[in-house]
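Think of the structure tokens as a kind of shorthand, similar to the way a musician reads notation: each symbol stands for something richer, in this case the local conformation of the backbone. In the example below we present two proteins back to back. Begin with the first one, reading the sequence and then the tokens, and try to describe in your own words what changes along the chain.
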Amino acid sequence: MTGKAKPKKHTAKEIAAKVDAATTNRGGGKAGQSDRTGQEKGGHAKLECPLCKTTAPDIKSMQIHHDARHPKVPFDDSKLVNLHATVAVDASKPRPGVRGSHKK
């Protein structure tokens, strides 16, 4: 009867996936706060709503936000704040949220 206490064997692919998940910044928590707010160039938040200062990664997401949160005000994409244009570029730092950016 050798089936009950058999230790589970992990594959190399499963171990590599666990290491990747533990070492790659996915943008959550306090570590990804600057990434979400767009404080650094390369962050996910590119546009900022002029009415409520909520950030979004692209124009389509901002339009969805605007239609849901500000239905009485007409949407004007020329009033949106581009956070990537206002922040200086620092090429020495790796881009946050890019899969495998911290691997050697």
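Once you have a description of the first chain, move to the second and do the same.
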Amino acid sequence: MTMLTTTSSSSSVPQDNAVSFTATRRFYDDANFPKGFRRCGDFTQKEAELLEAHGVAMQALAAGSLLPRTSDEQRFVEVIKGLQAATSPLEKLWIKYTTLALGRPFYAVVGTNLVRPSEADAYLDVLDSDIADEDEEPKAEEKA
């Protein structure tokens, strides 16, 4: 009796014999890190190296354009979705990268008034008119 077995090469079941987080090109984010990961000052040399080597695969997994092939990649996707806490260096690194890519928060000094760029011109016009009025007042007093 012969047993017939079938295998599917495009299965979404993780295959642990595959290498995790493989990419054919290096990962760069010139929009958020124009000097590169190594020179921006936010990542260690090891983190920058890992991000450049595996960032393309991590980005594709996070976006859902690549299906997980290994249990490590499946866990990475669950961490990105918030189902599990980050424990591996790549999981922690991707969370750090995405947090920094969103931008740093701006903290103002207490008591300062922040002026929006759209309001800046009107604000400067008011200041200019106030300064011009102060310059004219002493001249008027001199004539009197």
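Compare your description with these statements about the second chain. The radius of gyration is 28 Å.
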